[in-house]
Design brief:
alpha+beta; Nuclear Transport Factor 2, Chain: A; six-stranded mixed beta sheet
Length: 168
Amino acid sequence: MLSILGFASFLTTSTAGFAVQPQPLAAEKIHMSADEAAIRSARAELNAALANRDLKTTTNYWLPEVHTTGGGGSLWVGLDKNIDGFSKIFKDPNFVSGLRAPDKVEVASGGPKEAAESGIWEWRERAKGQVLTYTGRYLVMWQSTNGKWRIRSELYVTTGCIGGTHCH
């Protein structure tokens, strides 16, 4: 289970009752660009896809060379490795839920059409009769390809765990 958690800790879904739900400041909402709105919309769709264990929607947002570093430091390189990892997590009955809540989305003002999304993630899983809640910070690199924002890389850092004796 720890090998799944190492990677899975970066995964998240939207679930009622999560404590981690940062909202953009009112000024940010007023001045949000179309690109930022598209990325935030994609994040909401990705959170819903995780909640529904929807692999197809999840993979539609990845570039072929996507890299993901999970909360435990594990590294998945390439589309096939990421698909395999998510497939295993979605089939795992110990996967409970998760959430990625962006604090900030910065779209490049020049050069390549890229953006940085950063925020807080929360991941829940069952372990020996307990529900563990892992939390941390994340950073996602988005690239616009043919007018669609897609994920180039993701980094998840675990900063906390509550819920039982199995937190490491």
